[in-house]
Amino acid sequence: MSKTRNILFIMCDQLRADYLACNGHPTIKTPNIDQLAARGVNFSRAYVQAPVCGSSRMCFYTGRYMFSHGATYNGVPLNIAQPTLGDHMRELGVQTGLLGKTHMSADRANMDRLGIDPLSKNGVLAAQCGFEPWERDDGLHPDQLTDPNLAYNTYLRDMGYEGDNPWHTAANSGRDDTGALQSGWFLRNAHLKAEVRAEHSETAYMTDKAMAKISELGDQPWCLHLSFIKPHWPYIAPSPYHNMYGPEDVLPANRNEQEKEHPHPVVDAFMKHEESVNFSDETKRKHVIPAYMGLISEIDDNIGRLMGFLEEQGRLEDTLIVFTSDHGDYLGDHWLGEKELFHEESVRIPLIVVDPDPTADVSRGHTDENLVEAIDLIPTFIDALGGREKPHLLEGRSLSPLIKQDTSVVWRDAVFSEVDYAWRNARLSLGLAPDQTRGYMIRTKEWKYVSFDGFDPQLFDLVNDPKEQNDLARDPSQAERCQSFENRINQWIRARKTRFTVAHDTIEEKTDNAKERGIYFGVW
User: Fold this and answer.
1) CA atoms within a 13 Å half-sphere pointing along the CA-CB vector of 227
2) Radius of gyration from C-alpha coordinates of the chain
3) Nearest to 414 by CA among 474, 483, 462
């Protein structure tokens, strides 16, 4: 029997895979995350199925591709019919809750149609992506949209911070040389020390909440999704993290002039976005990234606090721990800011899995280079807890064979990702209708192919061009390869698990046995 009783599912927002020391960053300080990698498996080729917050998280939380679950962008409701992590865990007797961010929008229209009371137990679960909302905080609270009952603001006021929205004026603002308060919404203020003390920051606050909740749960098996808001913008950090790094710690930008001179039309449209223009300025880029790095080290310190607590509680012995991110951050690479497209900086994520089971001892400290997907986590959790596979529904695969180094398992040779940029200015500049903005990526170990509706594709030779600076799709010698990848994407779309309400076992039980069930048709 597995030793796993609990799941600690830690997710950061907008953390790049290469901004951890255990993944090769030369100066960033992440000793506690590195220790997780030393105790578990570091999956170095892990990919999200949609490189933007909301749709990526819905893939994590359903174990299904964006094409299958339909929540294609931030604010697009997740259809109420889609089972989620919480549903799968509760079937196994595991209480499942959220602390932090989900970026999920409730399917209110279908809840109303079905008469589901949003305040009922089932209504709350339906509106909160299947999680018990132990404390949901999606992390962006501009003054005009701030919930007056935001728990974090109440906490900050109790700690002595003043104002109607101390999330903004304390946690995400700092004072300039004149003493004037400056907003962290503006990149120019990234170097300032946030007004909030580190022990009261969003990261520390959610970590405190996690430890308190674990204590409260006692011996009840639990799945806790601790979803940190940072290092997502606003890029501003409290002391001592605000000046822990300097311009000398910023890695050289991964870009060349050819990318800017002859860009793919969709990439070109994203290059013209304000965030891309600003991060393409080297001075501005080196001004902001040290704050991004400081926020990562702050998360690392709180991971250390949390691991120390789990050890004291004896929970390291029976808790499977995952550390990951919902997508990356361009930070000026390829002349881009933010995320949403398919370069490695955007679509590849950190993924560390620490399995407490002794059968996982063979892989502790191992870096696994197999191609894995975000949708693999739910099958992994079910597997670790001794649950049954759900091949009719879940589109990911359990990582347990890789963790236990089962060499008999044939692993996938490609990963997939999707984008829907209908809400972005890129659509307007390209003159597209809202239903003309889909893109698809297939990435093998040697190649990456990107197909955008209505435009030529992109093709990168990852062996000879690992930085993805030379798009080969226009090369006539690559036409056959491009067509082969296009065909494979079409085959992948046709293989989506849309018949997810009926298990394969049920179909097997009812195949070609109508007479046995008293149903006769076409009989003489």
Assistant:
1) 26
2) 23
3) 462
What one-character-per-residue DSSP string does 114-148 give? TT--TTSHHHHHHHTTTSEEEEE--S---GGG--T
Q: Write the pLDDT tens digit of every residue in 68-126.
A: 999 999 999 999 999 999 999 999 999 999 999 999 999 999 999 999 999 999 999 99
Q: Which two tokens stand for residue 153?
A: 């603001």
Residue 425 has what pLDDT? 97
Handedness of CA 405, 325, 439, 467 (dihedral sign): negative
Instruction: Give CA 231 to chain center in angstroms.
Output: 12
pLDDT digits (tens, 9 = 90+) for 254-277: 999 999 998 999 999 999 999 999
For residue range 306-325, what is the model confidence (pLDDT) as tens digits?
999 999 999 999 999 999 99
pLDDT at 443 over 80: yes
**What does the buried/exposed string (b/e) look like for 332-348 if buried means 16 or more CB atoms within 10 Å of the residue's CB?**
bbbbbbbbbbbbbbbbb
Confidence of residue 515 (pLDDT cuts 50, 70, 90): confident
CA distances, 184 to each of 168, 194, 201, 233, 325 (Å): 8, 8, 14, 8, 22
Is 330 within 8 Å of 342 (Cβ atoms)?
A: no
Task: For residue 193, give the DSSP letter.
Answer: B
Over the chain, what is the mean pLDDT? 96
3-state secondary structure 415-454: EEEEEECCCCHHHHHHCCCCCCCEEEEEECCCEEEEEECC
pLDDT for 1 equals 46
Query: 181 exposed, middle or buried (CB, 10 Å; 0-12, 13-18, 19+)?
Result: middle
Overall average pLDDT of the 186-196 stretch: 98
Residues 200-224 pLDDT 10s? 999 999 999 999 999 999 999 999 9
For the four alpha carbons of 375, 381, 384 and 387, in that order, the dihedral sign comes to: negative
3-state helix, strand, coil in the chain (%, to 5): 40, 15, 45
Instruction: Walk across the sheet containing 132-136 and list its strands.
Output: 132-136, 95-100, 222-231, 6-13, 319-325, 351-354, 41-43, 366-368
Can you give the pLDDT at residue 144? 82
Per the structure block, which two tokens stand in for 257? Answer: 């002039």
What is the rounded distance in angstroms from the CA atom of residue 156 to the CA atom of residue 390? Answer: 44
Amino acid letter, 63 = G
**CA–CA gap between residue 362 and residue 404 (Å, rounded):** 6
Buried-exposed string 442-478: b where 16+ CB fall within 10 A, e elsewhere: bbeeebbbbbbeebebbbbbeeeeeebbebbbeeeeb
DSSP class of 47: E
- pLDDT score for 2: 59
pLDDT the model gives residue 329: 98
Contact 315, 291 (CB under 8 A): no
Q: DSSP labels for 513-524?
A: -TGGGT---S--
